[in-house]
Design a protein that fits this description.
Largest sheet: 8 strands, parallel, barrel
Mean pLDDT: 95
Helix content: 25-40%
Distance between the termini: 9 Å
Strand order of the largest sheet: 1-2-3-4-5-6-7-10
Strand content: 5-15%
Radius of gyration: 19 Å
CATH topology: TIM Barrel
């Protein structure tokens, strides 16, 4: 029914939560093949969002490496969209509220990611999308000094904005319950307002994570749903989701369609956060198409057109599920339903 926004698949579920004592990572070629092969009524995924970390895309890729990546994507008739900057200490980054050295490592990763983004644009394989960041520190550390640590994160994000502007990029902070200073929806709004660089720093809304915001999992003071919430009361759930969306939608410049069963999960090096589920999971708590509309439509009911693509995030799906072609057919069908309901031409 609609041609916009473009429909993307995330590549990082092949890496995030994998390795160590968990399941092995799924290589980028396999993820691309599965994505490119999915079809629903003639529709297909039009692009992918990338994680700038090995074993997928090296943050230190040479120009030749990036040219090969661009050619590979073009060979699948896919484009690149948003990029995840590996800002966490295990991947070479550092805490955004840490020492000057830690903050320096954080900013160095942002600079490298923005450089990769610009080069992919120059290669003609990327014409939209953001560079995704977070605070790279947990809520427990943040809680030792909430005002001071939020201010420190904001200062780091401001420096990151200047780096992004120098490269013609925009940054999106993804709100998750596992990131200090971003672990509750009210704290997320506070941080964005403190940075106050709306043309450069926005919010990346992931439906699985923003649903956890309503539960106050790591931020009880932000809870919107009662502790003994009856999930059959869809009216109360929708109003809670609407409250979060109304607060963060004005900042939203990147959007992940996802499902959540109301629990948390963490595997590998990834801390516990919102559990992503397949769209048809019988335990899924979200009416995906309806909930997506809270983010994709403004108060006037019209599409916000705040982003040029939407992306499916299937973080921490088991490998058996991820390697099944029908998984991606079902996901693509859901993405098309979301676009048909809330897209534009």
């Amino acid at each position: 029914m609609h041609k916009s926004p473009a429909v993307h698949n995330a590549m990082w579920p092949g890496i995030v939560g994998k390795g160590g004592d968990g399941e092995p990572a799924i290589d980028l070629d396999t993820m691309l093949n599965l994505t490119a092969a999915a079809r629903v009524g003639g529709a297909r995924f039009e692009g992918v969002d990338l994680f700038l970390s090995l074993p997928h895309t090296d943050i230190d890729s040479s120009d030749e490496d990036l040219k090969r990546l661009a050619d590979k994507l073009a060979g699948h008739n896919l484009v690149a969209g948003s990029l995840v900057a590996p800002v966490w200490p295990p991947l070479g980054g550092g805490s955004a509220m840490g020492s000057n050295e830690e903050r320096g490592r954080f900013l160095a990763q942002v600079r490298k990611a923005c450089s990769v983004g610009k080069k992919l644009r120059d290669l003609g394989i990327r014409s939209y999308g953001v560079v995704r960041i977070d605070s790279a520190v947990g809520p427990a550390e943040w809680a030792f000094d909430p005002p001071g640590n939020t201010r420190r994160i904001a200062e780091t994000f401001c420096e990151a904005c200047t780096i992004a502007e120098d490269h013609g990029e925009r940054l999106a902070a993804e709100g998750e319950i596992c990131w200090g200073g971003m672990h509750g929806w009210k704290y997320m709004v506070e941080l964005l307002e403190l940075v106050n660089r709306p043309k450069t720093l926005g919010f990346q809304a992931d439906m699985a994570h923003t649903m956890l915001y309503t539960m106050g999992y790591n931020s009880p003071e932000s809870r919107l749903l009662p502790a003994d919430f009856d999930w059959s009361d869809t009216r109360v759930l929708k109003e809670a989701l609407r409250t979060v969306a109304n607060a963060l939608r004005p900042w939203t410049i990147d959007f992940h369609v996802a499902q959540n069963d109301g629990t948390v999960k963490g595997t590998g090096s990834h801390d516990k956060t919102g559990r992503h589920c397949p769209p048809n999971d019988p335990n899924g708590r979200l009416n995906i198409v309806e909930a997506a509309g809270l983010w994709m439509r403004g108060d006037n009911g019209e599409p916000t057109r705040a982003f040029q693509h939407i992306c499916w995030d299937g973080c921490m799906f088991p490998n058996e599920m991820m390697l099944a072609p029908e998984t991606w057919t079902n996901i693509l069908a859901t993405m098309i339903q979301v676009r048909d309901a809330h897209g534009w031409d």
